[in-house]
Amino acid sequence: MNKTTMLALMLGLGAAQAGGAEGARQEGFLEVNGARIHYVSQGQGTPMLLLHGYPLSGELFARNRDALAAAGYRVITVDHRGYGQSTAPASDPGSLTTYANDALAVMDRLGVQRAIVGGMSMGGPIAFEMYRAAPGRFLGLVLINTIANPASIVEQHLWRGMAQKASTFGPQSLVGELLKDMLTGQTRLNRPADAAFLTAIVRQATVAADVAGANALATRPDYVPFLKTITVPTLIVGSVEDTVYPPEFSRKMGQNIAGSKVVLIPGAAHAAIFEKADAANRAILDWARANTLR
């Protein structure tokens, strides 16, 4: 039994998730830019590429694939190099630019010319770098619990502390630091399987990936001026109880991207796409249909 199947069983997804009940499902590895990238492609129709945050994997979107695929989308998720089942060369464990180039290369290898690109948390800056490099590859943009501002002094130290802790004690040591922000207290108490699922994902990352991702977040550029260059339909999904990137940041991005739509999900923390998957799926599908992105 591989790690993806184990994670699916933990969620109770069973054969529907593992076997692709909602349309054709492909799963495998692609050699791109010196890394071995794990991907899942589910469904048929308009491509939708979803990029996970730190230090997670494409399985963050395990509760989104079926619903989005059933609505007529080809949902593609990747594990960034060093996360989930993906591996990276020691010479390039990861950066925002590298993650973006990997994602574009996966699109090329899967025959996807244009896609709706969604990025959660660290996936947001990765999507910005993809758009900077190849705006013509975007049908639309979904920004999920993410931020365009550079890291503040406090946040820089937080990420560098994460890198140091992972280096000293291993990836599993980050679970306690992250889970309190990923899920609300109510969810952690009443839905322990959710916490166990995210815990398993965090533990899959390599130390090198944890360090590279933390450094990428600590040193990310200021994307706020860049937002005004985005011309594709854009949805911004935030959550009311997000303590990592509070809803004020979602609203600020909305003010700087012309024609964008902001949706704030109540009762969810930083991992709203997982914790309140039904609400997130509705928000994405309502926006996509309104913009005829299908």
Write up what this structure looks like.
This protein has a single domain, classed as Rossmann fold (3-Layer(aba) Sandwich). An 8-stranded mixed β-sheet has the order 1-2-4-3-5-6-7-8, sandwiched between helices. The relative contact order is 0.15. It is globular, with a radius of gyration of 17 Å. α12 links the parallel β7 and β8. It is α/β, with parallel strands linked by helices. It is built from 14 helices and 8 strands. The N terminus is likely disordered.
Briefly summarize what is shown.
The protein is an alpha/beta fold and 294 residues long. The chain has helices spanning 3-11, 14-19, 65-70, 96-109, 123-133, 153-169, 175-182, 185-190, 192-204, 207-218, 224-227, 247-256, 272-275, 277-290; strands spanning 25-32, 35-42, 46-51, 73-78, 115-120, 138-144, 234-239, 261-265.
Radius of gyration: 17 Å
Number of strands: 8
DSSP helical segment count: 14
Q: Tell me the CATH topology.
A: Rossmann fold
Given as residue ranges, the uncertain stretches (5+ residues, pLDDT < 50) are 1-6, 8-21
For the sheet with most strands, the description reads: 8 strands, mixed
Strand percentage lies at 15-25%
Distance from N terminus to C terminus (CA atoms, Å) equals 35 Å
Q: What is the 3D shape?
A: globular
What is the second-level CATH architecture? 3-Layer(aba) Sandwich
CATH class: Alpha Beta
Helix/strand-derived category reads alpha/beta
Number of separate structural domains = 1
Organism: Deinococcus rhizophilus
Keywords: Hydrolase, Signal
GO molecular function: hydrolase activity
InterPro entries: AB_hydrolase, AB_hydrolase_1, AB_hydrolase_fold, Epox_hydrolase-like
